[in-house]
Amino acid sequence: MFTGIIEEVGRVMALERQGDWARLELACTTVLEDASLGDSIAVDGCCLTVSDFTDDGFAADLMAETLHATALGDLEVNGVVNLERAMQAGERLGGHLVQGHVDGVGTVLERVDQPGTTHVRISVPPWLARYLVAKGSITVQGASLTVIDVDGGPAGPSFRVGLIPHTLEATTLGDLAPGDRVNLEVDVIAKYVERLLAAGTDTPYPHEPSPKDQPA
Length: 216
Known about the structure:
Strand order of the largest sheet: 4-3-7-1-2-6-5
Shape: globular
Number of helices: 4
Radius of gyration: 20 Å
Number of strands: 13
Distance between the termini: 48 Å
Strand content: 35-45%
Structural class: mainly beta
């Protein structure tokens, strides 16, 4: 589990494809301070397992599903990625609950730079749009952001976020430009709520009757 608060920007040292899977090597320092083989690190919002350590950082294997469902396959050598270690129990939850399970890939449609804030509009796959609400949370490239508004226009659903100067400097989001593909993860709580409501069944857990359940 992650928070969406980026700890470090890493650099791609290698992306070696081996048939339908690939090996990704990243140069980094902060996220490796207490890392062990098998630990989870979010790379642009995708939870990956540390499979090996290198001279400059670590390596992770990307299976076919990861390459298909995320934008990690678009990475190039010397490109940069957002990195975050798994959260520790008892730490401050500065962002929101992030699983590192990418739900879909969006495309940057527009970027408007203004004093103090950069507004970015991003397309969202139609099946994910229902989980987005104004003032709700969205993870873009692993960064926890607040949705400003959601648009369901004729060009397809999209949403807008605002990036403060710190976010632009501390993450890779400062490099976003129209046409860039980005990893998206919606709020997991929204997905569970939808699932429970769709089932239409009472809770299986026993409960004490409330006063309103008592006969008059």
